[in-house]
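Quick one:
INPUT:
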């Protein structure tokens, strides 16, 4: 495999793309520019969830970081499969365990993992695929709404409400915004973890359909969608151009006659082909 850089472009309409639990679940923002942010951890979580749903029974596509997982127990599976005592991890056991975990867990051989636990030590893996925070093209306004619930949780609450079982809450949304995230696939680390061409195609599918099965009260169906995935494919492992120059060739701008954007049609996405050097192929996947 050769080096691949990529840009993920998605939008949000009347939804909360990534609430901050330290700020009452308000959408994350850059406090200086007021641009919206979505963390890399959030994006990876959605990729993991997609793989877990669609590759549930496929060998080699288990997910290490998943809801309610006990990581020591996951690593003990490696020691048990290899016939090692998880309470006596040595260098040999650690290295063999790391290879077993890479082979069986998609997210480990893709994103890496720290598995240096006291029992069933499987060392550390530096993943070949990394993502940046997603950042909105323009500054965002976080809309806040009061919501009511016509029920209470306990008898005491009902007594306190004196028969009126309505309770109040708050809900935050982003009226509309377009976000972009940057990523890369390191072919040298891919060789170390066993990340294959098939894994890459699986990852691309997951990114294209990132929000298809992610609907919730905060993100209703259709409220978030991947619009474009721009791939910069190098014809060498070392790469044929710096990633930042390739990313800078992609321009996402609001149309001049649009004062308040409320649709992806209000933006133009262009790629300066003159900035793409020989040895780099640009592929645009639209959704």
């Amino acid at each position: 495999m050769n080096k691949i850089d990529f840009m993920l472009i998605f939008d949000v309409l009347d939804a909360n793309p990534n609430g901050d639990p330290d700020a009452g679940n308000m959408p994350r923002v850059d406090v200086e520019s007021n641009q919206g942010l979505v963390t890399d951890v959030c994006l990876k979580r959605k990729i993991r969830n997609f793989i877990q749903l669609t590759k549930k029974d496929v060998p080699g596509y288990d997910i290490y970081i998943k809801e309610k997982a006990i990581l020591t127990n996951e690593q003990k599976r490696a020691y048990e499969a290899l016939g090692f005592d998880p309470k006596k991890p040595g260098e040999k056991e650690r290295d063999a365990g790391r290879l077993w975990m890479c082979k069986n867990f998609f997210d480990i051989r893709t994103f890496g993992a720290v598995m240096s636990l006291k029992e069933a030590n499987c060392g550390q893996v530096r993943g070949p695929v990394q993502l940046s925070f997603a950042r909105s093209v323009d500054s965002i306004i976080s809309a806040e709404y009061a919501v009511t619930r016509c029920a209470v949780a306990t008898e005491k609450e009902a007594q306190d409400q004196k028969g009126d079982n309505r309770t109040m809450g708050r809900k935050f949304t982003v009226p509309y915004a377009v976000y972009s995230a940057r990523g890369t696939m390191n072919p040298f680390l891919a060789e170390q973890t066993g990340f294959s061409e098939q894994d890459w195609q699986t990852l691309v599918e997951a990114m294209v359909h990132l929000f298809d099965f992610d609907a919730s009260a905060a993100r209703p169906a259709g409220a978030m969608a991947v619009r474009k995935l721009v791939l910069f494919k190098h014809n060498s492992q070392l790469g044929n151009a710096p990633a930042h120059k390739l990313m800078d060739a992609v321009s996402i701008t609001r149309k001049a006659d649009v004062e308040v954007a409320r649709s992806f049609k209000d933006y133009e996405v262009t790629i300066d082909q003159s900035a793409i050097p020989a040895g780099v192929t640009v592929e645009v996947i639209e959704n």
